[in-house]
Amino acid sequence: MLQPRATTRLVVPVLLLGVLSYALIQSLIAPVLPVIQRDLHTTQSTVTWVLTVNLLSASIFTPILGRLGDRAGKEKILLVTLVALAVGSAISAVAPNIGVMLVGRAVQGLGGGVLPLAFGIVRDTLPRQRVAGAVGLIAAVLGIGTGLGVVLAGPIVDALNYRALFWLPMIMVLLAAAVTWFRVPSSGVRAPGRFSLTASVLLAAWLVALLVPLTEAAQWGWGSTRVLSLLLAAVVLAAAWVVVEARSASPLIDMRMMRTPAVWTTNLVALLFGISLYGLLGFLPAFMQTPSSAGYGFGATVTRAGLLILPMSVAMFLSGLAGPRLTHRFGAKTVLVGGTLLAVASFAILTLAHDRQWEILLAMAVLGLGFGAAFATMSNVVVAAVPAHQTGVANGMNANIRTIGGSLGAALMASIVGAQVLPNGLPTENGYRYGFAALGLASVGAALAALLVPRNHRHVEPAVAIRDEESYAEAAVAGVPGLEAKVAN
């Protein structure tokens, strides 16, 4: 239901705060894993699970929470999600050992539900003319938060300690939860049907079976029995999940929706972009922190490495804001293709020219321009292509597919970079060069996938005669996206 302007004026700010907090919680930790390893007296292979378990949890709960929001009320599930994010942050902040830390990070993974719920609330509560801009802004903040976490990690640890990386976002989350409780209105849009527990369990099972071997393959070996067995189990469980969903009267993920040209093509772009972005952010800081005596790298501190990535965050935010205007002028497909081509150019720079800091700064700025515009555009394409009651689950699956792509990218980079090692144990320059090139190829694939996105991707509901404001509100409750019907004379 569309709400009065006075009621909705805090909706977008509180959603932005929740999304920013989640993005920071995801990205702040990667640069300080060695610090956590030393403090909690664990091994390098074990401490990587601080990232992995959060990724697994988010992959599982993002679409589930999106679906629950569509059924029970997005504002209610958003509040639950924010509280879980805060609780997980508190557990991680006080963790006395690695086991407790992993529990906290798994609980934090529920924060992935912020994304589909935020997009759904925007579509349900804001006037049509504000939806595209708000969606673009949320996508831009998600992008800048992802890059900003890498930038802020060093200064925060230097000034305080690594546990502040959990406390500070927790404060932001609690503030967002409080405002959500008092100021985010109920949309009134609900999806019919029952919640499928079987589909949820199968979804969790095949995602775990897929992401664990992809994350651990660099250490276990791609041809090891464990990796191959889990990948085979993932295929079987995924097939079973698809069968259950296809036969369900109230599926967790509507397979007909997923087959929509605008949805599956955009999801393919998200998968390939996830490979590129998360694969890069997981390894570029280590490249820049490598001492120059290795023949490459800058010997940068954690703080300085973050500053070299800062142009990406700034450019991503600015291009995300400009995304809706560019889409209005040139069309979503054109903007999406343009964004992917900018990403290709950035990885070409990183592959061929990475000896000077200004080259890294240039590559990061170009990459940010491409990713920011593309992320904002993808979100708007999905919002426009599905019925109102499927907005949350559709965007949840898009974000989830990007997360799966991130796991693929991290595994790909770990295998390529780790395959060539210097006598001192550091990766060779060629290892990074080949890794950057592989991520560039993923961006090329994203550009080709973007070419498949249909130009006319808007979902059309049955015509509704809009005679006055009361009829307009009734149509909004019915879930008519954008209220495409003509105003009756």
Could you give the topology of this structure?
Elements: H1 5-8, H2 11-27, H3 33-39, H4 44-47, H5 49-72, H6 74-93, H7 98-108, H8 114-125, H9 128-159, H10 164-183, H11 197-220, H12 225-247, H13 255-258, H14 261-289, H15 302-330, H16 332-352, H17 357-385, H18 391-418, H19 429-451, H20 469-477
Helix pairs in contact: 2-8, 2-9, 2-10, 5-6, 5-7, 5-8, 5-11, 5-18, 6-7, 6-8, 6-10, 8-9, 8-18, 9-15, 9-17, 11-12, 11-18, 14-15, 14-17, 14-18, 14-19, 15-16, 15-17, 16-17, 16-19, 18-19
Task: Describe the overall structure.
By secondary structure, the protein is mostly helical. It has a single domain (about 5-195, about 250-460), classed as MFS general substrate transporter like domains (Growth Hormone, Chain: A), CATH 1.20.1250.20. It has helices at about 5-10, 10-25, 35-40, 45, 50-70, 75-95, 100-110, 115-125, 130-160, 165-185, 195-220, 225-245, 255-260, 260-290, 300-330, 330-350, 355-385, 390-420, 430-450, 470-475.
